[in-house]
Specification:
Elements lengths: L7 H16 L3 H18 L3 E6 L2 H15 L10 E4 L4 H10 L7 H7 L5 E5 L6 H13 L2 E6 L12 E4 L5 H21 L7
């Protein structure tokens, strides 16, 4: 057993060191300064925030909806209207089967979204075809757009109003940071003090 785990300690230290490096650049603070007003504005005007992604990013999209939709309810009853487009399995599979997998999110947006809403697309590579197609649709419909990505940003970074590009080529580190963004936003939106612009 000792021989089997001989490389574990340095591997864990290296992973955590790389994770720490991905968190130390100023991009996160800059992104929060731009994302928070979009989300607060959506709550004030009772607009909807749409989240979507594939694989692990689909899970993060659903996680965003649970946390921001539930954990941030204010004493005055104000809530964020959040929808994870990945959770409508029937629509996702219908559009994938009858049209094309690249349309599974964009076609849902065409039926649900309107000006003033917010679209948050999550793609570790920044090149997921269905996330890119959804962002093009979101822009055409007048939505504010946020993209969580990594690996240099891919095509997604140029399609959104606010790109959050994790400075890493490791999908694990990128997805770790994306979930941290979810929790950071949730904590701030839950704890924001009276007087914060809405």
């Amino acid at each position: 057993m000792t021989d089997t785990l001989s490389g574990l300690d340095p591997y864990v230290r290296r992973y955590l060191s790389e994770e720490k490096a991905a968190l130390q650049e100023p991009y996160l603070l800059e992104a929060m300064r731009r994302i928070v007003p979009l989300l607060l504005g959506a709550r004030t005007t009772e607009r909807t925030i749409f989240f979507f992604g594939n694989g692990g990013s689909a899970s993060t999209a659903s996680h965003f909806v649970v946390d921001i939709g539930k954990a941030t309810i204010r004493g005055d009853g104000k809530r964020f209207r959040c929808v994870a487009l990945v959770d409508n399995v029937e629509s996702v599979t219908a559009w994938a089967n009858d049209a094309d997998y690249s349309k599974v999110f964009s076609e849902q947006l065409k039926g649900l979204a309107g000006p003033g809403d917010v679209a948050v697309g999550i793609s570790g590579s920044g090149n997921s075809p269905n996330v890119l197609e959804a962002m093009r649709t979101a822009r055409a419909l007048g939505l504010a757009t946020v993209g969580l990505t990594g690996m240099g940003g891919g095509k997604l970074k140029d399609l959104v109003d606010v790109p959050v590009v994790v400075p890493s080529n490791s999908m694990q580190h990128i997805e770790d940071v994306h979930l941290l963004v979810c929790h950071l936003l949730t904590a701030y939106l839950r704890d924001e003090q009276p007087g914060t612009p809405r």
